[in-house]
Amino acid sequence: MHRFASLLAGAILLASATAQSQLPEVILGPGLNSGRTEFNQNYNRVLSSDTAYVLTGIYYVDSTHSLTIPAGTVIFGDTAATLVISRGAKIYAQGTAGNPVVFTSNKAPGSRQPGDWGGVIILGAAPLNKVNPSIEGGIIGGSYGGTDPDDNSGVFAYVRIEYPGYRFQINNEVNGLTMGGVGRGTELHHVQVSYSFDDSYEWFGGTVNASHLIAFGGTDDDFDSDFGWTGRVQYAFGLRDENVWDANGESNGFESDNDGSSTSTDQPWTEPIFSNVTLVGPARTDAMVGNLPIGNKFQYSAVIRRSSRLKIFNSVITGYPWGLSIRDVNTIAAASSDTLQIRNLSLTADLQPSGSGSVHDEGRWAGVTAWFNTAGYDNSSSVIRFPIAVGLTNMENLNAPNPVPAPGSELIGSADFSSEYLASGFDVTTYRGAFDPGKTLGQQWTAGWTNFNPQNTDYNASSSTTDIEIVLSEVPASFTLEQNYPNPFNPSTTIRFSLPVRDIITLKVYNVLGQEVATLLNGELLAGRYEATFNASALASGMYIYRLQGQSFSQTMKMMLVK
After folding, report:
1. Stated pTM of the model
2. What pLDDT, on a 0 to 100 scale, did the predictor assign at position 467?
3. Burial 127-152 (b: 16+ CB within 10 A, else e)
4. Mind listing the pLDDT tens digit for each residue in 33-46?
5. For residues 284 and 334, is the Cβ–Cβ distance under 8 A?
6. Distances in Å between the alpha carbon of 543 and those of 327, 484, 513, 520?
7. CA distance 380 to 344
8. H helices within 357-484, ranges in order?
9. CA atoms of 160 and 162, how far apart (whole Å)
C-alpha cells in the first residue's frame, strides 16, 4: 500500500516512496480460528488505515455504538467471521474513489475461494412485513425492523467485500452485503461485492436507497429483495464468472419475493425500484454462448415471485440462458395490474425454457411474453439474441471488463424517465444500463476504487517488489503516459507520466492474462510530471502491461521484461 505526503501547489518536489512492509496486525473479535463464537463491541471504536485487521467470530457492534473504518483500511476475514451492525448501531465505512475500504479473505493470493469468511450484515429499525425476524445466516442476535423509515445505520461508501458467504448449513449462508430493515437515513453507495458464496446483495425489508453497486462473480443471485423492501437503486452492474455458480440451487440475476409464501399479502410489499442496471451473465460474449461449463446452474435473468412488486427501468440484461420467470398467482396479478413493472429493458437470452415459445418462462405464466412485449413498455426482446445485439462488445476479459456500450448500441438514446416511479431520487439519463456511452471506461463511476482481480491482489505487499520515485514540476498541457525506459528491461524500468490537473491516480502492472502483478501508485496527486520506477526482480520474463488511470482518463502501454 502506497501513501503520499500532501503535495503543495506550485512546489517542486522530489519524493520517494516504497511499498510498505507488512502492516501491524490487530485481531477484531474473539480470536483466530474461533469460528462463529460471538463477540460484542459495546463501545465506540475507530480503526486505523495504518493497521491490518483480522475479523474473527460473529462480531456484533452493539446497539447505540459505532464502528468507524477510515479510507484505505483493509480487514481480512477469518473463516466464518461476520461483521454484524446491530439494530440501533452505526457503521461509518467511508472510503474514497482512490482509497476504498476493503473487506477480503484472510487466505493468501491465489488460494481464495467464495465463502472464505462470512460477510457484512447491517440491521436497522425501518419497516418490513415481518415482526422481529432473525436475519439470514444463522445470526442469533440478528433481529431487525421497526417503524422508522428514516432510520440511520451510518455510511457505507467506496467499500469492497471480497470472498464472503460462509456456509454454515446447506442453503443457509451469509450474503456478501445483507441489509435487514435498513432505513433511508443510511448512506450506501459505491460498493463492490466479489465472489460471494451466496447472494451478492440481499435486502430484507427496509427503505434504504443505494447507488453505484457492483456484483462480481457471485455464486447465487446478484440482487435479491424480500420482506417489503421499498428502496431505490440507480447504477448497478452485475458480472458473472462462468466457472462459479450455486450447485445447490439456481444462479439468477434478479430475484425478488414478498416473503416465503406464494399467496403472501403481507405489507409493505416488496416494491424496490431499479434503474440503469447492467447485468452481464456467464455467456458475456457471443463466443461463450453454448460453451459454458457442463453442469452449470445459471438460469434466469430475473425471477420474480411470491407477491413481489419489483420495478425495473432503463436497464440491460444479457448473457443468461433464459429471460424472465414471473411466478405465482399474486405476482402475475401484480404484473397484470401494473404494480409490477418492467420498462425500457433490453434483454438477450440464448435458450427457450422447456415448453416456452420465447426466452421467458411461459410454463409458469403463459402470458409473460405478451406482457413483456406490450406496446408502450419499450422492452426488447423475447426472441433468442446474443450479447452483440445490445452492443456490449468488449467483455472478453473477466478481470478487465469494459461494459460501456459500443457506438450504435440500442442502449444509447433509448432511456425513458417519464414514469411516476422515477419522478424523484433518480438522475435522468439518455441511455439504458449503468454506463454512460459518452465516457471512456476511465471516466466511468467504476474507475479507481474497484478491483476485478481480487484473487491476485496482495494487500500486504513487501517493500522488495516495487520502488517509486515521484517528481513534481511544471504543470503540463495534457495527460501523457510515456513508453517505459529502458524497454526491454531487467529488472527495473522507469515509467513517466504527466497530469495537467489534480487527480486520483492508479498505476498498475498486469501480465498478459490480465492478472494484476503490482500496484505502483494509488493516491491523489497534484498536476505535474511524475516518474515511477518498477522493480520486476520477482517476476518471470515476458510481456507486461501497465495502466495509468484517473477519474477522466485511462491509458495502457506494453513493456518487455527479459532476464
Report:
1. 0.81
2. 41
3. bbbbeebebbbbbebbbbbbebbebb
4. 999 999 999 999 99
5. no
6. 51, 13, 10, 17
7. 8
8. 368-372
9. 6
